[in-house]
Q: What sequence folds into this?
């Protein structure tokens, strides 16, 4: 959004501050109306207030004084006073679109009230339909309100009038991506980059879209360019780390997360993601250290709780693991992985098995048919002594992934317990041939062919 410009009084003429004009006050010393327009901060506010109280200015001219003081109040963060001045300015001169536009921006940016912002931007557009700033701002308000289609329509209107309007392409790309139309998003990203090839935000945005498409190599190329253009922005390096993680280049990803932390020592997600890589790399001590910092910085990060729970689970500290998965679920009850992880940990511990079953069932409600969750639930059924239910779950897993060794072995155990020795032994033999240690893994939890 462009900066708000102050107006200068000259009879009944409105001009922006960038224009050098002679006001009535410069015939001698500058008067308060002139200082109101040309000064800033407390000096401008005091001058505007004296001019308003002087009873010298009326109608359109008085509206300008309130308009200018509103800008100063806004810059100071005194939003309610700014809104009051815009209200008065509009009351005195309802035909000037600038006041509606500026007030709309306060409603949108500072008060998070897109409905009032839309009303003001609508009026600004009606008064001056060719001013693209007003249409652009209205598009932003539609976006904030969650009306993507109307936002897209307004951005399209801006682009139709000015095909060189890079921010409109950029913002529309974000909406297309949110709607899941990544091809259109990337097309708009391309246009924004062609128009402003030195803006790192546009490369970063396209990189995010490539990453969402699973094109990690292209994403890294864009994040590289964003980092080159602005190496001090931790967000660009963070996104490159995510893309390198997706590529499988975990050491490079760690290097980037470390760079992010050097730029911003309070970047909780960088600690979280680096900790998760340390867990993957088999370094639980470093993983726990990073995840502890992540949670200290952001105790509401469900993914960090879930990540630390997995480290505790791998170390056999099942009580702490369950506690962390429970914290993750409290913070994000839509996270199926946390339910599945708690289900599996309770099954490992061999206690609270009905609660474990409920966890797996909830995970499957969130991600219907997920093979990993079905495998976990099959194991819970096995521990509960319900071979028919275990077989049903393992069958569903093996239909999707016939090489899922744990499901194959578990089904073999369940078949043995049903008295189907031939089928059970066949499953166990096939599973053991594929993974010689699978019997030991199940035995750790008390599950053996003879049990």
A:
């Amino acid at each position: 959004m462009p900066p708000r410009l102050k107006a200068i009084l000259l009879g009944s003429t409105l001009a922006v501050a960038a224009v050098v004009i002679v006001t009535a006050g410069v015939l001698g010393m500058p008067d308060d109306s002139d200082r109101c327009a040309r000064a800033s901060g407390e000096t401008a506010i005091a001058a505007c207030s004296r001019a308003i109280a002087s009873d010298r200015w009326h109608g359109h001219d008085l509206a300008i004084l309130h308009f200018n003081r509103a800008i100063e109040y806004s810059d100071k963060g005194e939003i309610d006073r700014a809104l009051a001045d815009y209200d008065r300015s509009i009351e005195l001169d309802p035909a000037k679109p600038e006041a509606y536009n500026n007030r709309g921006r306060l409603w949108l940016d500072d008060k998070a009230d897109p409905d009032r912002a839309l009303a003001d931007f609508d009026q600004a557009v009606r008064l001056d339909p060719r001013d693209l700033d007003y249409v652009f701002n209205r598009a932003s308000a539609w976006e904030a309100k969650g009306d993507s289609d109307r936002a897209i329509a307004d951005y399209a209107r801006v682009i139709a009038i000015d095909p060189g309007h890079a921010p409109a392409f950029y913002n529309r790309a974000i909406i297309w991506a949110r709607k899941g139309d990544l091809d259109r998003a990337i097309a708009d990203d391309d246009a924004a980059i062609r128009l402003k090839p030195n803006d790192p935000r546009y490369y970063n945005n396209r990189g995010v879209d490539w990453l969402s498409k699973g094109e990690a190599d292209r994403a890294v190329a864009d994040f590289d360019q964003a980092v080159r253009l602005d190496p001090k922005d931790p967000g660009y390096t963070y996104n490159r780390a995510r893309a390198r993680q997706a590529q499988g280049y975990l050491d490079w990803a760690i290097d980037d997360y470390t760079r992010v932390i050097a730029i911003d020592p309070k970047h909780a997600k960088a600690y979280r993601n680096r900790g998760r890589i340390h867990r993957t790399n088999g370094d639980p001590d470093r993983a726990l250290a990073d995840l502890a910092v992540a949670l200290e910085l952001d105790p509401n990060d469900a993914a960090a709780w879930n990540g630390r729970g997995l480290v505790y689970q791998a170390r056999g500290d099942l009580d702490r693991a369950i506690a962390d998965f429970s914290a993750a679920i409290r913070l994000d009850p839509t996270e199926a992985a946390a339910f599945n992880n708690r289900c599996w940990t309770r099954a490992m511990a061999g206690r609270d098995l009905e609660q474990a079953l409920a966890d797996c069932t909830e995970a499957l409600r969130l991600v219907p048919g997920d093979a990993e969750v079905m495998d976990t639930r099959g194991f819970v059924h096995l521990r509960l002594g319900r071979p028919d239910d275990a077989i049903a779950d393992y069958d569903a897993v093996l239909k999707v992934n016939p090489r899922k060794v744990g499901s194959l072995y578990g089904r073999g155990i369940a078949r043995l317990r049903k008295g189907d020795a031939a089928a059970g032994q066949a499953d166990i033999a096939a599973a053991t041939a594929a993974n010689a240690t699978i019997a030991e893994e199940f035995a750790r939890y008390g599950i053996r062919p003879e049990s």
Remarks:
- Confidence is low (pLDDT under 50) at residues 1-29.
